[in-house]
Each structure stands twice: as structure tokens, then as C-alpha cells.
């Protein structure tokens, strides 16, 4: 991945549209309902048993995330048919977007892999990415991995987001220091 494609903490989340299983066109980073933040989970696809496990585990946290006004969506480069087949192993209530192109994956700054064989899948696919976008459309939390074995632990993620969302904590976006900053300003 080219460093210039890495999404920067605090930056405006890029405009990426996906189609969900119910046929809706949605813009990633734009929360639904009463929520004003969104958690976007980029997953490898139906061929990945770790993705299936992670998405099913995420389902048990959706209520807690919605309680702190964080919407949840998962997205993949899989086709509609592949996602529909994957549903036989998924037990999730959040929307799933499909058909991400390699250009969209590059825009999101995730690592992209090629399948090891036709049995794995028939297209280039993303490695895991997790993005939390705040009410201003800024990237508040970012986590990308180049393999399926490293992902944020969900209990810690939800606990951390509860803490961040508490206005009494006044917790800023972390990781925004730039080399050209001339002095250290405590935030």
C-alpha cells in the first residue's frame, strides 16, 4: 500500500458508495437512523472463516454501539451471489454492502490480496479494515491489517468508543501529529 493512500486520522472520510443486500445505495460514513457516528468494517469475503467469526461476534455488540449512537455496516468486494451464499453462515442484523471495486478499496487505503486459488475466490479482495467516522464525517478511529489474523478486539473497541463518546472525557482524535508541527500542543 502506498503511504499516500493511507487514510489519515482526522481526515474527512472518502466518498464511497456501495449497494447493500436490500438494494439500497448507501454512502459509507453516513450513519442511519438516530446514530451520528458509523463503524465501517471492511472484510475479506465469504471464503474467510475468520471474517465470518468476526462479523458474527460483531452482531453481539450492535445494540451497545447503537446505544452510543454508532451505526454499523460491513462491506466486501464479494459479488451479490457470494454474499447471499455467505448469509448461510452469518447471523447479522447490520447491513452488508457488496461489490467494492479495487479503486474503491484503494480509496479506503486497505491492503488488497489476490486469491491463492479459484477455490478461495474469483477476484482481488480486501484485507480487514475498520473505520469509525464521527458526526462531522472525520475519521476518528482507523485500523487496517494485511492479514485476517489481526483485527480490533470487539469488547475493547466498544468500551473505548463508549469512553470516547462520553462528552465529559473530551477525547480528541488521536494520531494527528504532523512532522511540520513546530511545537507540542497538549490536546
TrEMBL record:
Organism this protein belongs to: Ferrimonas aestuarii
Domain Thioredoxin: 7-166
GO MF term list: antioxidant activity; oxidoreductase activity
Gene3D superfamilies per the UniProt record, alphabetical: Glutaredoxin
Record field: transmembrane: none
Alphabetical list of Pfam families matching this protein: AhpC-TSA
Listed name of the protein: Redoxin domain-containing protein
